[in-house]
């Protein structure tokens, strides 16, 4: 590898055309400048200057070395500028969150990125363990959990909560169904259905509730945006967080049945502990918090 100091001395000499001016510019002696050039020539094994008394011209090899020196200067200047600048409209934003929240968050982040072409936007819907591990490993800038993070490399803050909803067809009896009514209608299952049913139905049917894994199923689907579809056409019921309705086009065909014991899941915004966040993530955090705040609102146009 070429000696960087010798290369810079030679590049400066090629620009000034004078040992005297080069020495003054670099705060060196003239013999020091001459020594750097000779050492660089020895390292390359070829003359870089044609000397004619006190004047000189560059050899073809010297021209190439000069070009290299100028290119390295430009690269260093670019590096310094990049390190010194923290552009809020440039770089990668990566967020991992539950699927329903992702469906609400992604359009909001897209609107932010639409006028900022240098932003690289990544939103991943993922299970809770994947979110936690991804933030700890640095694969995601931010993550959303339903519980406080239990990891030494991750920190978090509770930013809201969202309601779990018992979804029924809009034209069904608006009163609270009995457990027998639910069993007769049948559960539209999905990957989180048993867990969410335990959280919501167990406290509302404490005497007879058999457990989410024992509920009668009427169907199963793992595409989040399509889970409400069978319910909307009168087939079965299901349990989803409110954010799970965000991507469904026919919400007017659904009703959220009011239950005596309302259940909410916490929302925790997590990031890697000790990381200094770049400026581009400030807006992302504001958008995430605003999305969570919308879910924390007790209102809703689907409540019976």
TrEMBL record:
Keywords: DNA-binding, Plasmid, Transcription, Transcription regulation. Residues 2-59 form the HTH lysR-type domain. PROSITE patterns: HTH_LYSR. One of its GO terms (molecular function) is DNA-binding transcription factor activity. Pfam families: HTH_1 (PF00126), LysR_substrate (PF03466). InterPro entries: LysR_HTH_N, LysR_subst-bd, WH-like_DNA-bd_sf, WH_DNA-bd_sf. Belongs to the LysR transcriptional regulatory family. PANTHER family: HTH-TYPE TRANSCRIPTIONAL REGULATOR, TRANSCRIPTIONAL REGULATOR LYSR FAMILY. This is LysR family transcriptional regulator.
């Amino acid at each position: 590898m070429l000696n960087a100091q010798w290369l810079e001395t030679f590049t400066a000499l090629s620009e000034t055309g004078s040992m005297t001016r080069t020495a003054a510019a670099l705060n060196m002696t003239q013999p020091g400048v001459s020594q750097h050039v000779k050492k660089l020539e020895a390292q390359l094994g070829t003359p870089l200057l044609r000397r004619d008394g006190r004047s000189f011209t560059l050899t073809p090899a010297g021209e190439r070395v000069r070009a290299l020196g100028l290119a390295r200067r430009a690269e260093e200047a670019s590096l310094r500028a990049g390190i010194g600048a923290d552009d809020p409209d440039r770089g990668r934003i990566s967020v991992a969150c539950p699927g329903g929240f992702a469906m609400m968050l992604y359009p909001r982040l897209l609107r932010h990125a639409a006028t900022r072409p240098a932003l690289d936007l990544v939103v991943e819907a993922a299970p809770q363990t994947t979110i936690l591990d991804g933030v700890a490993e640095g694969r995601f800038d931010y993550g959303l959990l339903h519980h406080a993070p239990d990891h030494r490399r991750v920190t978090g803050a509770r930013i809201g909560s969202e309601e779990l909803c018992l979804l029924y067809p809009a034209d069904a009896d608006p009163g609270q169904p009995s457990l027998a009514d639910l069993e007769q209608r049948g559960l539209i299952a999905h990957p989180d259905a048993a867990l969410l049913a335990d959280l919501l139905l167990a406290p509302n049917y404490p005497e007879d509730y058999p457990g989410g894994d024992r509920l009668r199923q009427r169907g199963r689907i793992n595409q989040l945006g399509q889970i409400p579809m069978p319910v909307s056409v009168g087939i079965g019921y299901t349990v989803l967080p409110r954010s799970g309705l965000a991507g469904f086009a026919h919400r007017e065909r659904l009703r959220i049945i009011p239950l005596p014991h309302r259940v909410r899941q916490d929302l925790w915004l997590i990031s890697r502990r000790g990381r200094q966040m770049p400026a581009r993530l400030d807006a992302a955090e504001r958008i995430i918090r605003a999305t969570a705040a919308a879910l924390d609102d007790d209102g809703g146009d689907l409540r019976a």
